[in-house]
Design a protein that fits this description.
5 helices, about 140 residues, alpha+beta, globular, four-stranded antiparallel sheet
């Protein structure tokens, strides 16, 4: 069986304003395309997990910029877009006793931001070249 794995970068960053933007800016400047990401945090630090088009180049670029970075193998699955699609796949793995440490999605252009001041962030993004998506917009897309 061919070993179908994807390389994921884990970047350890201080939980400070601008740190995620800094990492993504460095990657963009290097011509590296982010295909998916996840951020988890504590009070002091965060872990930015990334799947990119050029993982080794991204690793070298971020390491060279002074970031602590890890490169790991992960599994990527093209889920059926039906109710219960994710659950069915996760159940196969979990029923076998394999621990699922975390899950996140890739290759979608819809991104969720959890910010300290939602109203202020909405005002800042209004009029920018970005489409703000409502709950109704999501429901329409998922039909």
């Amino acid at each position: 069986m061919d070993r179908a794995v994807v390389k994921q970068l884990s970047v350890f960053i201080a939980n400070e304003s601008g740190r995620v933007s800094e990492v993504t800016g460095i990657l963009g400047d290097a011509g590296i395309n982010i295909r998916g990401f996840s951020v988890s945090d504590t009070a002091d630090y965060g872990i930015l997990r990334l799947v990119v088009d050029k993982p080794q180049e991204a690793f070298d670029t971020l390491s060279g910029a002074g970031f602590t970075v890890r490169l790991d193998d992960v599994i990527c699955i093209d889920l059926p877009d039906v109710p219960g699609g994710l659950s069915a796949v996760l159940k196969v793995v979990s029923d076998a006793g394999v621990n699922i440490e975390y899950v996140y999605s890739l290759i979608a252009t819809y991104v969720v931001l959890n910010v300290g001041d939602v109203d202020r962030a909405l005002r800042l993004l209004s009029g920018r070249p970005v489409k703000l998506v409502s709950q109704a917009d999501l429901a329409a897309v998922l039909q």
